[in-house]
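User: Teach me something about this protein's shape.
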Amino acid sequence: MKQLFLCSLCFVLCALCSCSPSGTASIQREDLFSLDIGPMEDQIALYNLEGDGRVHHAGLAMRDGFFYITDNNGGKIVRYNSYGDLLFMIYNDETNPAPISLKTIDDSAQATRWAFTYPLQSPGKIAVDSRRHIYVEERLPHDRRSFDAENKALLDSVILHFDADGRFVEYLGQGGQGGNPFPHIVGLYTSVQDEVAVVCRLPTGWSVHWYNSQGEQLFLVQFLNSAIPAPADWSSFPASVDTIIAAPDTRKLYVKVDYYRNVYDESTNIRTGTEPLSSLIWILDVEKGVYENSVEVPFYEYSFSENGRTTNVRLLYSMLGLVRGGGMLLHFPIETGYAVLRMDSTGHGQRRGFINVNPDELWFNHFHLSPEGILSALLVDDWKIQIVWWRMDRFMRDVL
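Assistant: First, the predicted structure itself:
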């Protein structure tokens, strides 16, 4: 499976300069445009302005310099260019007012900014392929959900497929077009040859459904909690799958597994908890069904002093995305943004960096890494949504 989308813009931004306070490389942030929070066509309804106490989901993908955003609360999908111009919208006409600035398909076949209606209920994760076809997670209404007794999982989601103009093509379920709903979807990616991968989480483990561009299922990969990969001498350590992401240019899955060791009280020898042992990213060849190799991820480490004592802390990075050629980007939240780590599929080429996110933007954000290394984000404060990016392509490519 693969992680998503790209930007090829007519202007070039400074990618890598300056230094963060810690001395690691700081990647320059570019604020592109902002959106208001609300129900109108040029707004995103992240929460009701009346205040219901809930923040709703918004998905983000970027391809060829266009930004695709799902509005979970408003029931719509929108596409913007990098200047913040709304180009088209797919919307539920029962939950959205009729667009003013966009033409509907009945108004003009030659419109440059247009809108289509579709009964979207709860759009979530989004992916866009090289044809600019759109794939969107959609939660089903309660009367269309079912329960998988074998896997103890609620089947409640499908993937909607729209063409580059926003016209509905089909929906994907388990097995392909028109199939049964998926269990909880945690990842949606496009991959080589415009293939689509859907990553699902179950009580018994994980499953990955892989389709060709015509919606035919090519592979079903299952990861059981009882069979998590581990080095031979680590088999007794507790382990958990943290993330599964598809490569953007090959039929490979990158599976990040975190391992822990038990901690005991020295005086009583009673187990008091666990601490991180290490993280490995296992690279699975989907066609062959075998792991090619694994790469160890270093810790994010820092120290602090209290009452004259210095404490060293080691924490686990999270995998953020993949780029072409086996590059991996990991991140860890810190007070002023995120520490980032670049690695390749051999474990070499490690590089640490920093991206700035203001503290008031940290309460809700959503990232997307393109196959070329452009990191985009949807950042939210109390009243505004900011679309930004970091030109990390050089950072992902260069090796210190």
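Now, about its shape. Helices lie at 393-397. Residues 1-22 have pLDDT under 50 and may be disordered. If you'd like, I can walk through any region in more detail.
User: That's plenty for now, thanks!
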